[in-house]
């Protein structure tokens, strides 16, 4: 995980039923085009990761977890439906949907992943690296 910054960040779901704080380094943002992210978010998703120990849930009035694959689960608010987290069972880090972070984030994008699964209604033309899978981006996770 390439770290972007060490600072305190806050975030929440749309209704405020789930709020959280991050106190530690976060990775650069990855844009994921996999079918699961597209189905969960309605588009491709943007996420940055942090170590689990640096994430604190400060309000939990509806955080639920969906086992989206044998290896991973997704955290969302059961009241407003906001997609908030992605968690691989064998990783010490957790991915946070960057749209749920309060501004300013101070983060920068690193790359697009799972581009072979991208939908047909948009093009990826921002000049960032593109990978058909995770490649070597998350090799340390």
Please give a quick description of this structure.
With 141 residues, this protein is mainly β. 5% of the residues lie in helices and 45% in strands. The mean pLDDT is 91.
Describe it for me?
The protein is mostly beta strands and 141 residues long. The chain is globular. The chain has a 7-stranded mixed beta sheet with strand order 6-7-8-9-4-3-10. The longest helix has 7 residues, at 35-41. It has one helix at 35-41; strands at residues 3-12, 18-27, 29-32, 45-51, 55-60, 63-67, 72-77, 83-88, 93-97, 109-113. The protein has one domain: Beta Complex (Metal Binding Protein, Guanine Nucleotide Exchange Factor, Chain A). 5% of the residues lie in helices and 45% in strands. The termini are close together.
Keyphrases for this structure?
141 residues, mainly beta, seven-stranded mixed sheet, 45% strand, globular
Global outline: globular
CATH fold name: Metal Binding Protein, Guanine Nucleotide Exchange Factor, Chain A
State the distance separating the first and last CA atoms.
Answer: 7 Å
Strand content: over 45%
Number of domains: 1
| Low-pLDDT ranges | none
Q: What order do the strands of the largest sheet run in, or round the barrel if closed?
A: 6-7-8-9-4-3-10
């Amino acid at each position: 995980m390439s770290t972007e910054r060490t600072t305190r960040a806050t975030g929440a779901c749309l209704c405020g039923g789930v709020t959280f704080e991050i106190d530690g380094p976060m990775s650069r943002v990855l844009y994921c085009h996999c079918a699961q992210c597209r189905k969960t978010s309605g588009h491709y998703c943007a996420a940055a990761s942090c170590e689990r120990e640096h994430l604190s849930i400060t309000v939990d009035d509806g955080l639920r977890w969906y086992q989206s694959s044998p290896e991973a689960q997704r955290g969302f608010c059961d009241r407003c439906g906001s997609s908030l987290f992605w968690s691989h069972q064998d990783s010490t880090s957790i991915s946070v949907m960057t749209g749920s972070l309060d501004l300013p984030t101070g983060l920068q994008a690193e790359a697009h992943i799972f581009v072979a699964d991208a939908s047909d209604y948009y093009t990826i033309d921002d000049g960032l690296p593109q990978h058909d899978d995770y490649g070597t981006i998350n090799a340390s996770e």
